[in-house]
Write a structure and sequence with these properties.
about 35% helix, alpha+beta, single chain, eight-stranded antiparallel beta sheet
């Protein structure tokens, strides 16, 4: 059976997808924090953490539910935005921040972020796709449009 060919989303699809992601993200963050990570800690079977960062322009605290992969003490995340053509806004905030907070279940820690090197990405993408198979589709949709950054968060201090 041939592999499905994924094309970039249309502008309308991205606008609607962004609206859905923002609304569901707020609800998921509320429930996750309210229950100490006991509820809404998965998305389609994959683990979810809450990333907290200060907005680089507004100075407001922003909380985003994101899929993650643990690697030792490090937390690995991607700036995939569901395979859309633009990077998520939170990515720019994280790049501008000295540190962020990540809540995994009830455990909250401060982290610094760096982007994975191409060699690290080669190692991490198969692990990320095993954890969440739709990453393959996201990468196919963004091929030739943008790179999906792989972010490595290391405990602060």
């Amino acid at each position: 059976m041939p592999e499905t060919e994924f094309k970039p989303y249309t502008e309308k699809q991205e606008k609607f997808g962004t609206w859905i992601i923002n609304r569901l993200g707020r609800m998921q963050t509320f429930v996750y924090e309210l229950t100490g990570g006991r509820l809404w800690n998965k998305f389609l079977g994959s683990p979810v953490a809450i990333l907290t960062v200060v907005g680089r322009k507004t100075g407001k605290v922003r909380k985003i539910p994101l899929l993650y992969l643990k690697q030792g003490d490090n937390v690995i995340m991607t700036a995939s935005k569901g395979g859309m053509s633009k990077l998520p806004v939170w990515y720019h905030n994280v790049k501008a921040a000295n540190s962020v907070k990540i809540q995994v279940s009830s455990d909250k820690k401060e982290y610094t972020m760096r982007e994975a090197t191409p060699v690290e990405e080669e190692d991490l993408w198969p692990k990320l796709e095993q954890m969440y198979p739709d990453y393959k589709e996201y990468r196919a949709r963004t091929e030739g449009v943008r790179n999906i950054p792989v972010l490595i968060f290391t405990p602060f201090g």
